[in-house]
Amino acid sequence: MLSLQQLVAQELMVPVKPEIAEFAAHIAAAYPNAARAVLFYGSCLRSERLDGEMLDFYLIVSDYAAAYRKRWMAKWNRRLPPNVFPFQFGGLIAKVAILDERDFHALNRTSAASVSVWARFSQPSRLVWCADDAAQKKAILSVSGAAPALLNAALSHMEREGDIFDLWQSGYALTYGAELRAERKDRPSLVIEHDRERYARFGQAALHHTAIPNEMRGDKIYLLADPERRAAREKQRWPKLRRNGKFLTIARLIKAAFTYAGGIEYLAWKINRHAGTQITLSAWQKRWPILAAILLLPRLLAKGAVK
Description:
- By secondary structure, this protein is α+β, with helices and mostly antiparallel strands.
- Helix content is 55%, strand content 16%.
- Strands 3-4-2-1-5 form a five-stranded mixed sheet, sandwiched between helices. A three-stranded antiparallel sheet has the order 6-8-7.
- A hairpin with a 2-residue loop joins strand 7 and strand 8.
- The chain is globular.
């Protein structure tokens, strides 16, 4: 059986459509003094539909000071990572999140104070551009922490036994609850059902790297050696993670009003797409995106569009 790092490396290197690789090279070229890697992930990776969709990339840079001409942009990327920007290339559109190599590694670990990065990179992604072999190795090592982080969270909420698919589903449900996400209740199961065999392989490998001891016997996973104490410590983190996650979502939306051109339009599009709502923005909402986001939030919470 392949190790977790081998599985991650294998998955990251799966070829993508030429237009995605070209888009990634275009993103890297915009940061010539700092770009280290570009990763492609998200719903467009699963569906392979590109036209009319918003593609998702992460740009990994050497450090924020090298990435930006404006010091305040580097400062806010460091204080409230990531910064997110819209990109257009070859008739396609994308949003690009920027992290430096240090933050990308740390935010893909169980100890991270936010779930957003490891929740995303526990799912399939592709390394579509990298500067050199060292950047490639760092990206593989960083992404290898994501699946153990998610499954460790799920183990902390599991009774004494469960199966691998229940763990994945529980983990994603926990992460959606720790962010203001416009997602349907069946979203975790849909993500897993897209490629059950992949989640079975990655799950078996990742369970060897979780902080909570466990053992797989046949199709069942069992907690081991003093499981209650370790699981309880991890479980106690989740109320704080949920509070932090929702606060960070709002803080990033406010920051995006300054860094992301058209951020309020993207927010409305994303919610409509995932929650089935029909939000239409007025001219004043587009002009004053921070105020619009603040006023929209109570309505979306009341409708259950975001949770």
